[in-house]
Amino acid sequence: MFCSDISAPVYFIFSSEVPHLLYYSHIPTGIFSLLIGIFVFWKNRSLLSGLLLGLVSVFNIWLLLSLIVWTNSNSQIIMFFWSMFGVLNALISVLSLYFVYVFVDKKDISWKLRGLLLLLLLPLLFFLPTSRNLPMFDLPNCQAIEGNYYINYYYGLNFFVFIWILVYGIHKYIQEKTDFRRQILLLVVGIEFFLLSFFVSGFLASYLTEIGYPNAFEVEQYGLFGMTVFVFLLGMLIVKYKAFNIKLLAAQALVAAIIILIASQFAFIQNPINRILTGITLVIVSTFGWWLVRSVKEVDRQREELEVVNKELDRLDKAKNEFINIASHQLRTPITVIKGVVSMIQQGDMDKLPVESKKKFYDGAMIKCQKLEEIINDILNATSLTNNKFNVMDRAAEDVDIRDFFEKMIEGFKIETLGRGIDLTIGELDASVPVIQGQRKYLEEAFSNLITNAIKYTPSEKKTNDIRDTRAGAATIMIGSKRDGDNIIFSVKDNGIGIAAEEIPNLFKKFYRAKNATAMYTDGTGLGLFIIKEIVQGHGGDVWVESELGKGTTFFIKLPIKQVGKADVKKFIEAQANLKM
């Protein structure tokens, strides 16, 4: 039966009987909240963003059903859709609570809490299709009459969840000691304001209708604006605190809100001239908004790039100062030793010493000279490779026999590895790639740096008669290779001190040294891995590392098997020679 059959106040769409606030309270609020939910979920598909999308989706379903009820005169349709309001109200409460927990704790809730939330919903689901929900229909006033137990239960549940979130939010706010407490405050204020306005207005509408005010459900429209406040504060969380790990500019949110508010007027404007004027306004605002957002994004991008550059400059400045302190100490110490030995020779004191003592002094001076040479070579190589970007394409490539290359390299480290009790061996080399093309001199420098590091940071004890103990856990360094299409991947693996995961991204930067490496050996320029990276990339390859603290490190170097293009390298060689003079 239709309410209009008995001359009841009927709420047809565009009718003067429909409250003027209806479309502003439903359409802009619903679209804006749904867009935010979709945007967040699209940018970051996580449990938290899924809960937000679920919350605003249920809210929008409620809005849609409310519009259908307000603008329909068929009693059966009104009864059908009205019966769902109680379940949707309770579901909004439960999803709000779930959302707050996941946002604050940054993890999913326990199975026990999920079970409790489900139990709270079960009575409503059970009585949904019964007369306990809607016992009758008020035909004269064209509205459904809700059962007292049913309506009291879901409004009681709403109030219970409201208090739960409030207590939980205050507890977490007091407990939190970081800036995250501001995010907790914004979230709790936003969602509590939404729940309070939404449920209180609904409760007042039901109560006033019950005591004889037939059109009291108009009060409900005012409570829907609580969602707008919640979405606004959610936008602040995203813009200011990068909540949900996504980026949203304030200009984007503002422009979107203005466009939605203007567009929503089409739902009830009847005058054609007003429609045209509103359309023109919408086009102008959309065009200006697009330009504004684009300009703000460009400024924001430049600002972020500048911040990155400034951070890198600060890091380089600190690293440079640390390098100067370390290098000056490392340069001063050898010079002091060498100066002392030369002074003893000048004064004739050296002639008075036994041959063995003389040899110790001379050996010490030679070691310090070698150390000085290493430091100077690192600095010159790093400067040379930075100023004259190394590229093997600019020079004539040589054929490098892989096995011969590594056997000679291992032979050069034999005294050092025997002295340290380290087993440096060639593991499995891919037989399908016996030769590669490259600059042997620079490849030797790159792999020599890797092996030197592996030896330095692999703790071991020298064994009797320099015979290596081959038991499990003994200090080892192994070199291997395997083919990867037109490339070959070399590995230098040790079972040394390892590298912390957070330090790996910075390893190949100038002057950078891992903390445990610096603690183990104060000497070092922090340029070795930077030089390796420049040489490898100059060959058209790549270098990376896999490591676990305390469990060893494996460096990988990927190189093309053949180099295409050969050119004269006279200019590069002369420039490097001039630097070393």
Question: Quick gist of this model?
Answer:
The chain is of the alpha+beta class and 581 residues long. The chain has 18 helices and nine strands. The protein is elongated, with a radius of gyration of 38 Å.
Task: Give a verbal description of the structure.
This protein has a five-stranded mixed beta sheet with strand order 4-6-7-9-8. Strands 1-2 form a two-stranded antiparallel sheet. It has helices spanning 22-43, 47-70, 75-82, 85-105, 111-127, 148-175, 180-210, 220-223, 225-241, 250-263, 272-346, 355-387, 402-412, 414-420, 440-456, 515-520, 528-538, 570-580; strands spanning 136-138, 143-145, 398-401, 423-426, 435-438, 476-484, 487-494, 542-547, 553-560. Helix 2 packs antiparallel against helix 3 (75-82), helix 2 (47-70) runs antiparallel to helix 4 and helix 4 (85-105) packs antiparallel against helix 7 (180-210). The chain folds into two domains: 3-245, Rhodopsin 7-helix transmembrane proteins (Rhopdopsin 7-helix transmembrane proteins); 391-580, Histidine kinase-like ATPase, C-terminal domain (Heat Shock Protein 90), CATH 3.30.565.10. By secondary structure, the protein is an alpha+beta fold. The chain is elongated, with a radius of gyration of 38 Å.
Topology:
Elements: H1 22-43, H2 47-70, H3 75-82, H4 85-105, H5 111-127, E1 136-138, E2 143-145, H6 148-175, H7 180-210, H8 220-223, H9 225-241, H10 250-263, H11 272-346, H12 355-387, E3 398-401, H13 402-412, H14 414-420, E4 423-426, E5 435-438, H15 440-456, E6 476-484, E7 487-494, H16 515-520, H17 528-538, E8 542-547, E9 553-560, H18 570-580
Parallel strand pairs: 4-6
Antiparallel strand pairs: 1-2, 3-5, 6-7, 7-9, 8-9
Helix pairs in contact: 1-2, 1-9, 1-10, 2-3, 2-4, 4-5, 4-6, 4-7, 6-7, 7-9, 10-11, 11-12, 12-17, 12-18, 15-17
